[in-house]
Amino acid sequence: MSKIRIGIVGYGNLGRGVELGIMQHPDMELVAVFSRRDPSTLTLLTDGIQKAHMDDILAFKGKIDVMILCGGSATDLPEQAPEIAAHFNMVDSFDTHALVNEHYQNVDNSAKIGGTVGIISVGWDPGLFSLSRLYAEAVLPVGETYTFWGPGLSQGHSDAIRRVAGVVNGVQYTIPTDAAMDAARSGNGADLTTRDKHLRECYVVAEDGADLSSIEQTIKTMPNYFADYETTVTFISAEELETNHTGMPHGGFVIRSGKTGINTNQTIEYGLKLESNPEFTSAVLLSYARAAYRLSAAGETGARTVFDIAPALLSPKTNEQLRAEML
Fold this sequence. Notes:
Layout: E1 4-9, H1 13-22, E2 28-35, E3 50-53, E4 66-69, H2 76-85, E5 89-91, H3 100-114, E6 117-119, H4 128-139, E7 143-149, E8 152-153, H5 155-162, E9 167-176, H6 178-185, H7 194-197, E10 198-206, H8 212-220, E11 230-235, H9 238-244, E12 250-260, E13 264-274, H10 277-297, E14 302-304, H11 319-325
Parallel strand pairs: 1-2, 1-4, 2-3, 4-5, 5-6, 6-14, 10-11
Antiparallel strand pairs: 7-12, 8-9, 9-10, 12-13
Helix pairs in contact: 1-10, 2-3
């Protein structure tokens, strides 16, 4: 059986996670890694894989079945996803919730012109948590849904910090508040605000001579990332960042508190506890790359989200196996 040929676009933490993940999928093979850096400077974990510059990506048209985009949502994916979808099936992890519809439309337009499939906003949130919210609200139409992230390091928010002028490096931790989670589980969280539910802790390494007050203000007022949250910014040295902030744990909970019948309380809770955020996100991306490949093989085109993908398309098992083993 021929394998699904994968290309990785961007070789940071997420890209390396995808490379590692492919080793666990016998129906997939890594063909090439693309970067804006000089390809000769990349040290891959897999022998014999082609390394290429982003400018040369079209030379691989017809040689790669699905591109997995591993750039950041702030600036990389809005530009790269539509461009790549015009030529390749693709999956990305775009996570700026407020701009998902705009990103979807841009990818959809390109994918339909190019005759490809582009699955956007794949990961655990957006992604698996999105599905949990949909299932829970469909089952319990009378109620409230709460999403809590953390405690853990957010890749997308950390990437946004690092793009602020004057910042050398930085990370951001999302911390759910215990009081808010208790209120959600008890059905008493209807009045919780975004600011009530989480604290965002930022640790920043600034350039020598940078205006620290300006950096802090830019971070705290950043729309879609920090403006709606209680946010702290702590400036630290590069050495402290390397010593204390290189791990990438994360996780969170989706809680639906609702009622059935006359006044029967019901609670649905879905949780994740992750030692490696990028490796887990990569694992989700790979399962949806399989779905993109199958949809394309069936002649479908255009953008999709996790809401549009039948669960069976994610699994390497046959429908007969799934019914026998999991249903």
